[in-house]
Write a structure and sequence with these properties.
CATH superfamily of the largest domain: Glycosidases
Order of helices and strands: HEHEEHEHEHEHEEE
Helix content: 25-40%
Number of domains: 2
Oligomer: single chain
Radius of gyration: 22 Å
Number of strands: 9
CATH architecture of the largest domain: Alpha-Beta Barrel
């Protein structure tokens, strides 16, 4: 009886040690992922994407940590404008970062209103990086049914209108859920921006130009996590 109790006690202690080791390993990995940036030997050109939700951003610190560019969230659909866009744009330029603007596509809204919203807030300029259209929302929650064909049609119209304003081809930031729903990455002849923390993404089925390598980087750049982006060599 005593031996059996000792064996049970030993197994419980071993299980507890293993559990603690797993928790410690998981905590270490979680911390590493929160602070991880790809090696500059693999990706020489790196930068950030920020918006109002990121709070006060220190772009000079971002530059010290290896950023050479900043994409600034600018507009959302047909009516919403990122409240920090102008201030972030000016601060990023003052830190000598190259700058670009991001528009969040709304599949429920017509392209004309969305492009008007974008051009109202985003200046023209040869020094601006190619504009980005983020594709993350799907049309399932629209007030009225929007077909997949209509989503693609309005998106193409928006692409053409934004490119006409910017004088540069857009980059399509396609998120996994949008691509799974519409499968547009292979059909749209534009450079892609994909997103996946810690591992290079392959969900678009073709090469990407930009990669959000850490979707929530914690650093001295801001009190809030920021998105850390790299460029394909």
């Amino acid at each position: 009886m005593g031996r059996r109790r000792k064996a049970v006690s030993w197994r419980w202690r071993l299980s507890a040690v293993l559990l603690l080791a797993l928790l410690a390993g998981g905590g270490w990995y979680w911390w590493q992922m929160q602070h991880w940036q790809p090696d500059t030997a693999d990706f020489a050109e790196q930068g950030i994407e920020v918006g109002a939700q990121d709070g006060a951003v220190n772009f000079r610190t971002a530059r010290v940590l290896g950023a050479s560019f900043a994409y600034i969230d600018a507009s959302d659909g047909a009516q919403r404008i990122d409240s920090a866009f102008s201030a972030n744009l000016a601060a990023a330029r003052a830190a000598h970062l190259r700058v670009g603007a991001v528009h969040l596509f709304d599949p429920c809204a017509l392209a004309d209103g969305q492009s008007a919203n974008f051009v109202t807030v985003v200046p023209r300029g040869a020094d601006m990086l190619p504009p980005v259209i983020e594709l993350s929302r799907v049309a399932d929650d629209c007030p009225h049914r929007v077909s997949e064909a209509a989503v693609e049609s309005e998106l193409m119209t928006l692409i053409n209108q934004v490119e006409s304003h910017a004088g540069k081809s857009v980059i399509l930031k396609i998120m996994p859920g949008f691509e799974q729903r519409y499968h547009l990455a292979a059909r749209l002849d534009r450079n892609l921006w994909l997103s996946r923390t810690g591992a290079q993404p392959a969900y678009a089925g073709r090469p990407w130009l930009l990669w959000t390598a850490n979707e929530a980087l914690r650093s001295e750049i801001s009190d809030h996590p920021v998105r850390w982006v790299v460029v394909q060599p």
